[in-house]
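Bug #2210: token dump truncated for Cupin superfamily protein?
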Amino acid sequence: MKLVFDKDDFLTNYWQKKPCLIRQGFADFSDPVSPEILAGLAMEEGADSRVIESKADTESGWLVTHGPFEDYEKFGETDWTLLVQSVNEWLPDVGELITPFRFLPDWRIDDVMVSFSCENGGVGPHLDQYDVFIIQGAGSRHWRVGEKQAMQEYQPAEDLCQIKGEFNAVINEHLTAGDVLYIPAGCPHDGISLEPSLNYSVGFRAPSKAELLLQLGDIAMQQKSLQERYQDPALSSEDVSWVIEKTQLSALKQFLKDALESDETDALLAKIISQSKRPLPEPELPTIAEQIPTLLAQQNAFIEKTSGARFLKLSDTQFYGNGEAFHVIQEALPTAEWLAQLQGSEATEELAKLAKSVAGCELIAETINQGIIYLYIDES
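Reproduced locally. Full output below:
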């Protein structure tokens, strides 16, 4: 699928600044999943799913039910929405919706949530703590979106966060199939389905400072170069023992700044942001480099990056995937870059031409064993 709009104008004027509506961003949009398949997925034990109902006969007016579901008859014909997280990790066709947004950093992409709403279905006015593109599929939906503004949040039901009061809407429109709505983090919004409809939310994670520091602290404990201990600045016998001196605070801050600005921290951050949201499936048997030429040469062989996997380049010799570092020598660099840009399914012929060296084959085998990529035969 091709997203048709001015990307440079978007990045300059809208990205993380204000919401925008891209009419017919996807011309002739075709849904990659049907409501029936989505409902079936929500019946699976491992799927993260919930139904949100607008219930006038309850105290709060809302009810949340978590999957897996056995049937949907009790929800009726109107006023409810089914949401399923990370559908791209279950259905490769849904994962293809990520490709048009790869003008943004790969590591920021979180997942594709898919929702099916009956008539008048919605989740109420709310805020998200991440940037999101909402693609309208089958049916139509009315959206009201405001710019960033101070709003009070509350929980009318468990696992449902909404905002109190009204907000000023800068977008107040009906969306039809192929329309794309961009909503930055912190912008209030409310969507109500006008008829049975599908929506695809391509979310971009935005970790908080606290979250990053927590992850960095955990992984830094394994790094010998960061085990250096704090040393006091020049002390005076006149200092009062129970007063935290400004010089001491400055020394502590500088101690942390030196750690954050080190090359070692670059590598640790690369490990963190290359981690997948969920554990990647590893093959039952390990693949070795000697097998790679034969595997790539198979007829109708295809290679695909595992949904949710990331393979990122930090420098010419350093790539990161699944939270691990891959040291790439020069002769394997074309192979590494090909794997990094891989999105969706590709025939193996081109990769076979690149992976002529032992180092290239070793890299492919390692990424397979890490669950970052996998090979398969198309027998259709």
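Output looks complete on our side. The chain has a mean pLDDT of 93. Marking as cannot-reproduce; reopen if the truncation happens again.
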